Amino acid sequence: MVRLVDLAVGADPPVGGAPVFFLMPPSGAEFMAISDRIVITGVGLTAPNGNTLEAFRSNLLRGVSGVTTIETRFMGKVLAGVCGFDEQAYQSKKDRRRGTRAGSISIYCAHEAVKSAGIDLDSVDRSRVGTFVGITEHGTVETENEIDVIRQYDYDVKCWSHHHNPRTVANNPAGEVTVNLGLSGPHYTIGAACAAGNAGLIQGVQMLRLDEVDVALAGGVSEAIHSFGIFASFASQNALAWDDDPTKACRPFDAARKGIVVSEGGCLFVLERLQDAKRRGAPIVAEVAGHAMNSDATDLVLPNAERIAECMALAVRRAGIEPGDVDIVNTHATATEFGDIQEAKALRQVFGDFPDVCVNNTKSFIGHAMGAAGALELAGNLGSFDDGVAHATINLDDPDPACRVRNLVMNEPRDIGRVDVILNNSFGMLGINSAVVVKRFVG
Question: Domain segments of the chain: what residues?
Fold first, then answer.
């Protein structure tokens, strides 16, 4: 929401005499006062270490990693976070063959989210249900697969699948959800690199506040482990992690961190306006209190600590709180050398003077789920509102002094009593940053 503000009170009008207005975004408590409150009423996910929110949370608290070894084309064995959900739980074999892995993940998450929110789609206006799915990339997997097939037939284009175009269009994952669930509201994907999971949620919030939809399915998905090109690119940058024990490979903030573990996964939230959720007696998981996105505008891959700090500070301010009010910050840290250092520097800048702010990391359990990362990592921390526990950052045996962060939860979960505010960071290549603040729901 925005307000129209007179551009220059008392100033002479421009030629033609018409008044001039500009759109000015409010901030802090004022932002929430003039905007509809948005709540999370359902969560559907598949992660490398759990296919339900309950299983995912339990494994995070028990220290269970989802990283394993797989074979990928041209490279042999690599480490990856692999999901084990049932692709035929909500779609037929034929539909799965026609579609994509990302679409299948999205469909599974959408059904699970709707079910957990207690929504009967037959009783709602499906033209008022929007689907907003964050992605890092889409189409790479299908194109690689088709090229691998066609080269075996002397590059005869007759062997190219007629499903290739609908499989590779950028809106595919969200579009597959609408076809499967019969949703006729707006749908699209949000390409936001590895900030996409947060960006999808933010888009859902904005569409609700604009009254474009009454229900938003919003979050992010990734099929990244099925693309050898992603592994090859990280390997060429010396940014691909390896360990003889796959569960030890992802080591954010550790001095021995070796790089990224590529993962697949997905998480979609059901978002509703508070008054609508209350009207139907919906279970309210949390309230989306604030969010922010910005750009580094400095480098293609190296994060900018100053811009990250600005993004977090803006999200906190829009939530109408102070940095010291945040109980848990879930970090983006991917276990790359410079990326972890830059985020730690930003954390010290925003939260360094507040000793009660706990910091953790979810990628240490599941690897980097790319477009799904922000949404999955937020979901993994939502249970803290109920149990008062911050899950750990595992594999943190020798903290890097350059990544010094106060109150980093290391290796074992920490009971912090009561959790009221969680901030979730998610950043991506080309310098895109996102931060989402969620609160314990108080009616």
Answer: 3-33, 38-279, 290-439
pLDDT per residue as tens digits for the range 101-148 = 999 999 999 999 999 999 999 999 999 999 999 999 999 999 999 999
Give me the catalytic one of 332, 358, 391, 403.
Answer: 332
Kindly state the average pLDDT of the residues 374-396.
98
The yes-or-no answer on residue 332 being catalytic is yes
Q: What are phi and psi of 94, to 5 degrees?
A: -65, -45
Question: DSSP string covering 339-358, please?
Answer: HHHHHHHHHHHHHTT-TT-E
Q: What is the CATH number of domain 290-439?
A: 3.40.47.10
Active-site option among 109, 194, 250, 267 = 194
Domains 38-279 and 290-439 equal at CATH topology level: yes
Query: Could you tell me the fold of the domain covering 38-279?
Result: Peroxisomal Thiolase; Chain A, domain 1 (3.40.47)
Give the pTM: 0.91
The number of helix segments (H) and strand segments (E) in the chain equals 15, 17
| CA–CA dist 220, 429 (Å, integer) | 16
pLDDT above 90: residue 21? no
194 annotated active-site: yes
Catalytic entry in 187, 226, 368, 391: 368
